[in-house]
């Protein structure tokens, strides 16, 4: 919580056990106009979409949070 309001209002699972979603670094977009975070599992570990883009790593998109 920040100022008595929840920091995360919603989380959306992207990859599911029966339907994995993989993206290249150039395909990793922004969540809610940059106000959210994308969680990506890469060959170098789990990181935010922003960190994956900076390191030019793609991977499995786990979820979006905003």
What would you note in describing this structure?
With 66 residues, this protein is mainly beta. The chain has one domain: 2-Layer Sandwich (Dna Ligase, domain 1). The chain is 9% helix and 33% strand. Strands 1, 2, 3, 4 and 5 form a five-stranded antiparallel beta sheet that branches. A hairpin with a 2-residue loop joins strand 3 and strand 4. The longest helix is centred in the C-terminal third of the chain and has 6 residues, at 49-54. The protein is globular, with a radius of gyration of 12 Å. The model has no long low-confidence stretch (mean pLDDT 96). Belongs to the universal ribosomal protein uS8 family. Keywords: Ribonucleoprotein, Ribosomal protein. Pfam families: Ribosomal_S8. One of its GO terms (molecular function) is structural constituent of ribosome.
What is the 3D form?
globular
Mean pLDDT across the residues is: 96
Continuous helix count: 1
The topology string of helices and strands comes to: EEEEHE
CATH uppermost class: Alpha Beta
The structural class is mainly beta
Distance between the termini: 13 Å
CATH topology: Dna Ligase, domain 1
Describe the biggest sheet?
5 strands, antiparallel
How many beta strands in the DSSP annotation? Answer: 5
Low-confidence stretches: none
In CATH, the architecture is 2-Layer Sandwich
Protein name: Small ribosomal subunit protein uS8
Pfam families: Ribosomal_S8
Family: Belongs to the universal ribosomal protein uS8 family.
GO molecular function: structural constituent of ribosome
């Amino acid at each position: 919580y920040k100022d008595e309001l929840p920091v995360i209002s919603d989380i959306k699972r992207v990859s599911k056990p029966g339907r994995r979603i993989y993206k290249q670094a150039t395909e990793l977009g922004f969540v809610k106009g940059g106000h959210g975070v994308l969680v990506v599992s890469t060959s170098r570990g789990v990181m935010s979409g922003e960190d994956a883009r900076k390191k030019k790593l793609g991977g499995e998109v786990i979820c979006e949070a905003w």
